[in-house]
Amino acid sequence: MSGVERVRLDRWLWAARFFKTRALAAAAVGGGQVELNGARSKRAKPVAVGDRLRIRRGPFEYLVVVRALVQQRAAAAAAAALYDEDPEGKRRRERLAEQLRLAPSLRYEGKGRPTKRERREIEKLKGE
User: Fold this and answer.
1) Greatest CA span in the chain, whole angstroms?
2) Is 106 a member of any domain?
3) Dihedral sign, Cα of residue 16, residue 66, residue 37, residue 45
4) Dist. CA 79–CA 11, nearest whole Å
5) Could you tell me the residue range of the domain that residue 5 belongs to?
6) pLDDT tens digit string along 45-55?
C-alpha cells in the first residue's frame, strides 16, 4: 500500500470495495449507513489507520478497523488487506446470510390475471 496519510471516507470505502462506485459510497455515507468511530460523518471526512467503521449494506452489517490507506481502487485481494473485520460481526453476517438463503421465498398465490394455460383450462370447464 502507499504512504498516504489522509483519504476521504467515500474514497476509502470505494477503494476497499464496499461500494462499486464513489457515488454509491458517498450516498451511503450521506444516508447514515456508515459510521466512523461510532458517529455519523460526512463523505469528505478523513480516514486514518486505526479508525473503526460500521457499514450497513442491506440487511448486512460490517464492523471493520482501517489498517491501510490508498487513493486508488485495486484488486480484491489488495482491498481485503486494507481492513480487519470484527470476527463476531462476520459470524453474525454469515449466520444472517444462511437464514436468508434457507428462508422460504415469496411465491405467487394465483391472484391477478390468469396465465395462458389457466385461461385454456377455464375455457375447457365452460365448454367454449
Assistant:
1) 80
2) no
3) negative
4) 12
5) 1-90
6) 999 999 999 99
Q: Which three cell numbers stand for residue 50?
A: 486505526
Tally of domains in the chain: 1
Share of the chain above pLDDT 90, in %: 74
CA-only gyration radius of the chain, Å = 23
The continuous run of DSSP H or E covering 123 comes out as: helix 116-126
Cα dist from 88 to 62, 71, 94, 95, whole Å: 10, 29, 10, 11
What value does the mean pLDDT take over residues 8-28? 95
Please give the mean pLDDT across all residues of the chain: 90
H-helix or E-strand spanning residue 93: helix 87-102
Cα 18 from Cα 81, distance rounded (Å): 13
- β-pair partners for 57: 60
- Asked whether residue 31 is assigned to any structural domain, the reply reads yes
